[in-house]
Structures are given as structure tokens and as C-alpha cells.
Design a protein that fits this description.
This protein is an alpha/beta fold. The chain has 13 helices and 38 strands. It has a 22-stranded mixed β-sheet that branches. Helix 3 runs antiparallel to helix 4 and helix 8 packs antiparallel against helix 12. The protein is globular. The two termini are 48 Å apart. The chain binds calcium ion (4 copies). The site of one calcium ion (CA) has 7 residues, from loops.
Length: 694
């Protein structure tokens, strides 16, 4: 079966499809005038419509969740959840009305069969499996997960342990219980740091305990090389499949409860109360150590490495010269941190900077709260900071744990491949709680989940700018562009292993997203990718605009597979809770499903614009499922082909569902059309009101 899937996928690639799907569209109503829901209902005037109306009335009456009349929602927990209940019912009733229920069940059953026949595939995660088995329920499930993660990491009570608990569950393991420390003085804070370091070191040894010496060597020598360094093209898989598979098997064998516990044991160090207590530390003696410049306060020996505490002036820490230092705490000043990898002799590294505008720089893989076979955390509590790195950086892991928490300031993050909340074989998290920040990376970044990975970026506030792509040429001969694989993207290296979970969360602020192929609410190969923006007017611009270095692009601008798409057993979803937003992709998105996958966009308010595309806007192909759902506002659906889903077996299902507002569709206005047949199994449902609840 696995082999069958492979050959089928290769033979039905999108490149053989015409860029426009206009021809498949079947209009049942004239569009020359803007019609009210009831006016257009009269125009349809068919028996089917009567049954649909009855079905909807039944749906409205059966709703028990109250639907607020206003669609303004800042945190997403007001309207998102009940709106998705309505949406699911709308889809179900729509399928029923056209007697497509059995066909849709057949589609879902096909997916289940595919999953059953490949059960036990390398690095399969239960969460991805369940989402693919219940595609109709998947949006509601993802909405809840993203909301709860955002509340944990972006709420007033920062709760990293809570987020790690959710990550543990999604990685099919039991969550660890976070230790609690009462810290008031510098002394109790140092004791807590020491205890956290000891506990994490112990859990890490347990995590790699099941690995043979050969497996450890394999991961150390080949994991970065094959998963990252060698990826210079389209990036859908890794080279040297037999070796790559052995590495994925080794990551599977790691003790995952201990791996997650290693992360959880560090969570108390991200607490601002820890910062307050550590800031009270006074100088003892005149400590000196090779690799650190500037005045130092203390150097403490522990069984798990030294704890170095730097002073309030300017310091430079050459972290890889500080070979036996496991923890650096700097109380203030504008400091410079160079490199900082973990390795066999220093498997755990923690950097805590309490104040100042700091510079973090280096070029080795695995720095700035990132780990290649180990555990690393960077917490920066204040200041405008600059993070410059190359691969595997800024809250990223390759078989391990990588966490970066930045509490404040206008920060700039720049890296290349695997960065900014990117995880393979563990947990990779980047949290930035405030400021107008910029994120720049080329591949597998900004909330990326590879095999057995839970990768997450949470930016709580500020007007932020995200850039992902611009370096790797894409793998398609017929369209220009770059590979991106970022911004709430899950992906499995095809032919090697299933993908993980990639999540991008952004709270307040007007944000700009630039991304290249396979990005932004993106799912590819037995995986889940989620991107959610909770507030502000956001622009999803499509492909990156400038070249990676800021200069002119080599390739023309084009985004293929982007902004809420699933492909080859993938779930890729975008949620946006408020604001006037734009969604742009050139082909296979926005909101596109392809080959036993679900792609979707769920927008809960504002006047939104969905750019013209070759295929997208609730469109599906090669047996896919797509949903574009928008509540409130006057939306502009540019181009044609909305909700396009041609005939097929087991089937394509496309939905564009719009509630409220005066909306524009393509070059013809057809706002408030109650229901239109967009294509054989494509539904365009536009209601002037949110269905009433009783
Ligand atoms: Ca300092
Ligand atoms: Ca700082
Ligand atoms: Ca910031
Ligand atoms: Ca928005």
C-alpha cells in the first residue's frame, strides 16, 4: 500500500494541472447584481433549495452554543469556537443536501484505509493520525490547541511548563510535572538554577539511555549533515535514505518522557520571579575564566558543570571556549554572546540574560537556545536584542530540546535553515513576549515540525515581520520561486519518515508574513502545520519579496503551496481572529487541499482580501479537502475558481463559507448568495447573516 501511495502521488503532481480551474466551474445563478440571501434563494427556486433551507433551519434550531452578534474578537476565544461548530454543521448539511454524504464518508474512509495500511510508519504521531482520520473535526481541534498554547505562552501568567505539557501529549508521551521553586534571594535563586540544571542533566541522560553508542555517533555525525547541510534544493526530503531512516529510528528509540521532562525541568528558569531574585546576586571574590571578558560576579562549581554569573557591565561570552560552563547568568549590560553549542561533554547549556541590549552571534549549527543532541535554553528578560546565526538556531532542536524565550524589546532574529521554533526529534520553541520584531530565515523555520518534532513560535505582541525563504531554489521546473517550508509548517521527509507538528502563533499587532513554497499553515506528508494570528491587520504577502540578503531576488516572485494547504496526507490550517487581512498565494493556496489532505483558512473578523490564484480559496484536487471560512467583514475574493473541487474518486471537496458582509467574488459581485454550486463537489456558501441560534 505504501508503495502504491508513492506511485500515485508521483503521477498526479500538480504541475500537470492547468493553472486556472475556471473551466470546471458551474454557475447556477446569475451574478450581475448583488442579491440578498432571500432574493438569491428565490432565483434558485429548486426543490434542492427548499430542502437546504429546511436543513439550515434545523441546524439553527439545534445549535446550543450562543453565537455573539459582534465578530470583534481579540483573543480568539469568543467567536472562534462556536463559529467552527456552525461551520462544521454547515458543511455536513451542505453535503446532505446534495446527497454527497456517502461520497464524503468514502473520502474519509479512504484516508483511514491509507493510515491503517501504513500504520507503524516511521515517526508517525498519534495527533497527526487522528487529525487525518477526522478531517471534519480537525479545524475545531486545531483551534483549541492553538488557543490554549497562546494562552499559556502569551497570557499574563507565562506558563512554559503548560505549553510543554501540551507538546508532550502531541508527541505521544506523558507530560512531566514541573518542579516549583520559591525564590526570593539571590542564594535561593542560585540553588534553584543548580537544581534545574541537575534535574535536566539527569533526564537528558535518561533520554539517550536507550541509544547504542553507534546510534549516538550516527546522530552526532549525520543528523545535521543530512537533514540540514545537504538540503540545498526543494527540500521535500533528505538524501541517503538508508542512513536517514536509521537516524529517524534512533530518534524514535530515545526515551521521550525523559526528553520532555528535560525541557520541563528548565521551565522555572523562564519565570520573571527568577530574574528578580537573580538580579540581587552580589560579587564574591574576583572570578576569572577563559572565554569571558568584563567583570564577573561568581563562578560556581556543580556536578553538572559550572554556573558563571556575569556583572552589570558589558561582557563578552565566548560560549564554546567556556567548555565546562553549563549555565551563564548575566545580570545587566549590553553583552555579546558568541556561538554556544551543546555536545557530549556539555549536553545541557543555559543562558540567562537579565537586562540590556544584547548581541547573540555565531555560525555553528545548534546555538542560541538550540541543540543538536542535547538540551539548550536561552532566556533574555529585557532589552532590544540581536540574534544572528546560521543553521539550527534560536529555539530549535535536532534530537533534543531547544528553547529561546525573549521577554521584551524590539528584537531581530536572523538565521538560515532550521531556526526560530523548529523541531525534529524533540521540542523547539521560540517565545517573544513583546516588541516589534523581525524574523528572517531561509528554510524549516518559524514554527516547523519535522519527524517526531514539536516546533513552535509564539510572538505575543508588537508589529512583527516574518521572512522565510529566498535561498533554496524550488523543485518545480514550470514555476519560479524558492523553497520555504516555514511558518506553522509540518513536514515529513518523504520516503524516510512522517512529519511532526509545526505551529506559528502571533498575538497582537499588524504583522507581515513573507514566505516561499510550502509555508504558512502548511502540511506535507503525514503531519500537521498550524498558523494563527490573534489580532491586527495582517498581510500574508505570498512569496518573499526581496532576496534573502535584502537585495534583488534571483527568482521571480511566485508562491506555490502556501497559506493554508495540506498535501499528501497533510493538515495545514491558518486561523486569524481579527483585523483586515490579506492572503496571497499564486498556486495551490490559499486554502487548498491535495491528495488525502485538508487545507484551510478560518478568519473570524475584518475585511479580508484573498488574492487571485491558480487554484485555491477553498479548492481541492487529486482527492483533497479544502475549507475557506470567513465570518464578518466585507471580503474580497479575487479571481475565479473559489471552492473548486472537481469530480474524482474517492473525491474532492471544496468549501468557501462566508457569513456576513458585502463580499466580492472575482470580477462579478455575488455577495449574499445563499448557496452556489461552485463545481461538482465544490460549495460556495455566502450568508448575509451568521445563522441564528435559538
Ligand atoms: Ca553584563
Ligand atoms: Ca537583552
Ligand atoms: Ca521582542
Ligand atoms: Ca488579523
Amino acid at each position: 500500500m505504501r508503495a502504491l501511495i508513492f506511485s500515485r502521488l508521483h503521477n498526479t503532481d500538480l504541475r500537470h494541472q492547468p493553472p486556472s480551474t475556471e473551466k470546471d466551474r458551474m454557475h447556477n445563478t446569475p451574478h450581475s447584481s448583488r442579491n440578498t440571501k432571500y432574493h438569491s434563494a428565490l432565483q434558485l427556486n429548486t426543490a434542492k433549495l427548499v430542502s437546504l433551507t429546511i436543513a439550515l433551519l434545523t441546524l439553527s434550531a439545534s445549535m446550543t452554543t450562543p453565537m455573539p452578534t459582534t465578530v470583534a474578537a481579540k483573543l480568539g476565544d469568543v467567536i472562534a469556537e462556536p463559529a467552527l461548530v456552525l461551520m462544521e454543521a454547515e458543511i455536513t448539511k451542505g453535503l446532505e443536501a446534495r446527497q454527497l454524504n456517502e461520497k464524503f464518508k468514502g473520502y474519509q474512509a479512504w484516508a483511514v484505509r491509507g493510515l491503517n495500511n501504513t500504520a507503524g510508519a516511521r515517526c508517525r504521531l498519534g495527533y497527526c493520525d487522528r487529525m487525518l482520520r477526522n478531517m471534519l473535526k480537525a479545524p475545531a481541534d486545531a483551534e483549541k490547541l492553538t488557543r490554549q498554547l497562546h494562552q499559556a505562552l502569551g497570557g499574563s501568567e507565562f506558563d512554559l511548563a503548560g505549553a510543554l505539557k501540551m507538546a508532550a501529549e502531541k508527541l505521544d508521551t506523558t507530560p512531566a510535572i514541573a518542579a516549583e521553586y520559591r525564590v526570593r534571594s539571590g542564594k535561593t535563586a542560585i540553588a534553584a538554577v543548580q537544581a534545574c540544571l541537575a534535574a535536566t542533566s539527569k533526564e537528558w541522560q535518561t533520554a539517550i539511555g536507550p541509544l547504542s553508542a553507534d546510534q549516538v555517533t550516527l546522530l552526532r555525525t549525520d543528523l545535521y549533515r543530512l537533514s540540514t547541510e545537504a538540503i540545498t534544493g526543494g527540500a521535500a526530503s533528505w538524501p541517503e535514505h538508508p542512513t536517514s531512516r536509521r537516524m529517524c529510528e534512533a530518534m524514535t528509540q530515545m526515551n521521550r518522557p525523559a526528553l520532555l521532562a528535560a525541557a520541563t525541568e528548565l521551565a522555572p528558569l523562564t519565570d520573571p520571579r527568577m530574574k528578580t531574585a537573580l538580579a540581587k546576586i552580589k560579587r564574591t571574590g574576583n572570578p576569572k575564566i577563559d572565554g569571558a571578558t568584563g567583570k564577573l560576579l561568581r563562578l560556581i562549581e556543580t556536578e553538572n558543570g559550572k554556573i558563571l554569573i556575569g556583572g552589570p557591565g558589558e561582557n563578552t561570552y565566548d560560549l564554546d571556549k567556556l567548555v565546562d560552563v553549563a549555565v551563564v547568568i548575566d545580570v545587566a549590560g549590553n553583552d555579546t554572546y558568541v556561538e554556544g553549542v551543546v555536545n557530549a561533554t556539555r549536553p545541557v547549556l543555559v543562558v540567562m540574560d537579565l537586562a540590556g541590549d544584547d548581541s547573540y552571534k555565531g555560525s555553528k549549527p545548534g546555538i542560541q537556545g538550540s541543540a543538536l543532541l542535547g538540551v539548550s535554553m536561552l532566556v533574555d528578560f529585557a532589552g532590544d536584542d540581536k540574534y544572528d546565526a546560521s543553521d539550527v538556531a534560536q529555539g530549535t532542536c535536532l534530537a533534543g530540546v531547544g528553547i529561546l524565550v525573549d521577554w521584551a524589546g524590539t528584537d531581530a532574529y536572523s538565521a538560515m535553515r532550521r531556526a526560530q521554533g523548529s523541531a525534529t526529534g524533540g521540542v523547539g520553541i521560540l517565545v517573544d513576549r513583546a516588541g516589534d520584531d523581525t524574523y528572517h530565515a531561509s528554510l524549516y523555520a518559524q514554527g516547523f515540525g519535522g519527524p517526531l518534532g514539536f516546533g513552535l513560535i509564539e510572538d505575543t505582541a508588537g508589529n512583527d515581520h516574518y521572512y522565510a525563504g529566498g535561498v533554496n531554489p524550488d523543485s518545480y521546473g514550470d514555476t519560479p520561486g524558492y523553497a520555504g517550508w516555514s511558518q506553522g509548517a509540518g513536514a515529513g521527509p518523504r520516503g524516510i519518515a512522517n512529519g511532526g507538528i509545526g505551529i506559528m502563533l502571533d498575538g497582537d499587532g499588524d504583522d507581515v508574513y513573507e514566505c516561499d513554497y510550502f509555508s504558512h499553515g502548511a502540511g506535507y506528508w503525514f503531519t500537521v502545520g498550524l498558523a494563527r494570528d490573534f489580532g491586527g491587520n495582517d498581510q500574508r504577502l505570498g512569496s518573499t519579496i526581496n532576496g534573502f540578503d535584502g537585495g534583488e531576488r534571483g527568482e521571480s516572485r511566485f508562491l506555490r503551496y502556501g497559506i493554508g494547504f495540506g498535501v499528501h496526507y497533510g493538515i495545514g490550517l491558518v486561523f486569524d481572529d481579527a483585523g483586515n487581512d490579506t492572503y496571497a498565494a499564486d498556486h495551490a493556496g490559499p486554502a487548498f487541499g491535495y491528495d488525502i489532505s485538508l487545507g484551510g483558512i478560518f478568519d473570524f473578523g475584518g475585511n479580508d482580501t484573498f488574492g487571485q490564484t491558480g487554484i485555491g480559496q477553498g479548492a481541492a484536487a487529486a482527492n483533497g479537502f479544502a475549507i475557506l471560512f470567513s465570518v464578518g467583514g466585507d471580503d474580497d475574493y479575487q479571481g475565479s475558481g473559489q471552492a473548486n473541487a472537481g469530480d474524482g474518486s474517492p473525491g474532492n471537496f471544496g468549501f468557501l463559507i462566508d457569513y456576513q458582509g458585502n463580499d466580492k467574488y472575482g470580477d462579478e459581485e455575488q455577495s449574499d448568495v445563499y448557496l452556489e454550486r461552485a463545481s461538482t463537489t465544490g460549495f460556495l456558501i455566502d450568508r448575509s447573516e451568521i445563522p441564528k441560534t435559538e
